[in-house]
Design a protein that fits this description.
9-stranded parallel β-sheet; mainly beta; globular
Length: about 190
């Protein structure tokens, strides 16, 4: 098994910052990616880790398609159209990240047709939607903070087995959580909307 590491890189003004296709065991660490259409794009890949990376002024900071076991940790995604867009993924883990000022309707994170996603100890501020969950199963959001997101802090459409617990929701413009045709467990959250 060969493991690849991209370390300490700066990528500026490219259509694709980093393109990962049919790859396994890749780590992107301590990079700065800005002014691209897609900062990091992973398709049909597995065991991808993005850590300590700063992504800003991209149309989509991180685009994950048909990939599994992706981890985004201790990264800052701000002023993008969408912070992270995951489509047909399994086993996505987002931990210790900040999603701020991502202005598209999908905003901070948008999950579509995903399975087993965990978002933990992350911060969502001034996004269109903090976390959007569409047609996805087994999504858990814990120990995170949602502040001043303009549409919804968390919005679910046709989502099953979503659990939102031990989070702080403060001053979001519409609602802390909005669920449409979804199965949601909302427990032990602090709400100040």
């Amino acid at each position: 098994v060969i493991m690849a590491i991209l370390n300490d890189c700066i990528i500026y003004r490219h259509r694709l910052g980093i393109a990962i296709t049919n790859h396994s065991d890749l780590t992107v660490t301590s990079c700065m990616i800005h002014v691209t259409e897609e900062g990091i794009h992973a398709t049909n890949s597995t065991h991808i880790t993005i850590t300590d990376t700063h992504l800003y002024h991209n149309a989509i900071a991180v685009l994950l398609k048909e990939s599994s076991a992706v981890a985004i940790d201790t990264s800052y995604l701000h002023t993008n159209g969408i912070g992270c867009y995951a489509l047909h993924n399994t086993g996505l883990q987002i931990t210790h990240c900040a999603f701020c000022d991502n202005n598209d309707n999908q905003g901070g994170i948008f999950l579509e047709n995903t399975t087993t996603t965990a978002i933990t100890d992350s911060y969502f501020k001034n996004n269109g939607v903090g976390v959007g969950i569409k047609s996805s199963t087994d999504t858990t959001i814990t120990h995170s903070t949602f502040t001043r997101n303009t549409h919804f802090a968390v919005k679910l459409w046709n989502a099953t087995t979503a659990t939102i617990q031990y989070n702080n929701f403060d001053d979001n413009l519409r609602n802390a959580a909005y669920a449409e045709y979804s199965t949601l467990t909302l427990t032990h959250n602090l709400l100040h909307n």
